[in-house]
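Researcher: I'd like a candidate sequence for this fold, 307 residues long. If you have to choose between options at a position, lean toward the conservative one.
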């Protein structure tokens, strides 16, 4: 495994009783990369994440997280991880700054020459936008402020790998934008690898370098949002106005079509837009394609069995 590979999953399988939840998941994540793990409910996302975090033992396959099998991870290994769950419901009597300083103290002994742990508490409070509320009790925070605290708790130890589960649930638009800036800061400046699970496909498209789509217990798509959209549809939609009239055209080569358009009409072209399939369109199409293929395979197997 190369040094910049943070997660390496090969043929990961998980069975509960006679039910196969994961049937052969394989993917890698590199240092500083932001991945979004998407999939329908019941696809196996939570099971996959829990295995990577070391909270669940897999049935089969090879998994390496920060160079360690998570099934045998030590406290020193776990100190290199950060986890932001969908919600926390304890610590209500602690004050924000006091709580983060207390939790951060557990990471001090795991500081290294390369990563100084924990995050300096006032810098952390500022990074998540809680400076005006630093001395409030946690139980006095609003839902959005509490969510910011959840994020702060997850990154207080300056993790090299951060797991985010629906991180902006309850955020208003301004808080969401600030959180997105924080994610980019962590990945770009601190080289943090981030694995994100979310049902907000617009958020996944804005944050993720790569999208993984999990369905039926395996990865059915892996690539950037643009790469996946090209896989679903080869045509882009080009919209423009000319002489007050609105035009729409589907083009396989949008760049070439736009060049021809300007060559023909020049400055007469206005309000030009080129639209490709959104991540939501792509996601729905890929999952439906997979489910249609699986249904077709099951039907063929049934027909073969009754012959």
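Model: Candidate sequence:
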């Amino acid at each position: 495994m190369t040094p910049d590979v943070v997660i390496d999953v090969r043929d990961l399988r998980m069975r509960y009783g006679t039910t196969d939840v994961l049937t052969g998941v394989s993917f890698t994540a590199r240092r500083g990369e932001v991945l979004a793990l998407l999939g329908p409910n019941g696809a196996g996302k939570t099971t996959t994440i829990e295995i990577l975090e070391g909270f669940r033992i897999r049935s089969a396959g090879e998994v390496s997280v920060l160079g360690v099998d998570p099934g045998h991870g030590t406290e020193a290994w776990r100190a290199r991880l950060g986890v932001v769950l969908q919600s926390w419901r304890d610590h209500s009597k602690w004050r924000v700054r006091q709580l983060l300083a207390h939790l951060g103290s557990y990471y001090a002994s795991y500081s290294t020459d390369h990563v100084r742990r924990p995050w300096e508490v006032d810098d952390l409070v500022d990074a998540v936008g809680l400076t005006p509320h630093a001395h409030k009790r946690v139980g006095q925070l609003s839902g959005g402020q509490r969510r910011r605290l959840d994020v702060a708790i997850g990154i207080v130890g300056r993790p090299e790998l951060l797991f985010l589960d629906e991180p902006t649930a309850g955020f208003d638009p301004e808080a969401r934008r600030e959180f997105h800036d924080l994610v980019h800061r962590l990945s770009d400046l601190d080289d943090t690898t981030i694995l994100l699970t979310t049902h907000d496909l617009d958020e996944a498209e804005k944050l993720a370098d790569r999208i993984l789509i999990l369905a039926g217990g395996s990865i059915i798509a892996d690539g950037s949002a643009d790469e996946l959209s090209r896989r679903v549809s080869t045509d882009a939609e080009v919209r423009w106005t000319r002489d007050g009239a609105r035009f729409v055209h589907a083009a396989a080569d949008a760049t070439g079509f736009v060049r021809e358009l300007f060559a023909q009409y020049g400055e007469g072209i206005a309000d030009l837009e080129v639209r490709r399939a959104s991540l939501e369109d792509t996601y729905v199409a890929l999952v439906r394609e997979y489910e249609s293929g699986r249904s077709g395979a099951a039907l063929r197997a049934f027909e073969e069995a009754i012959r």
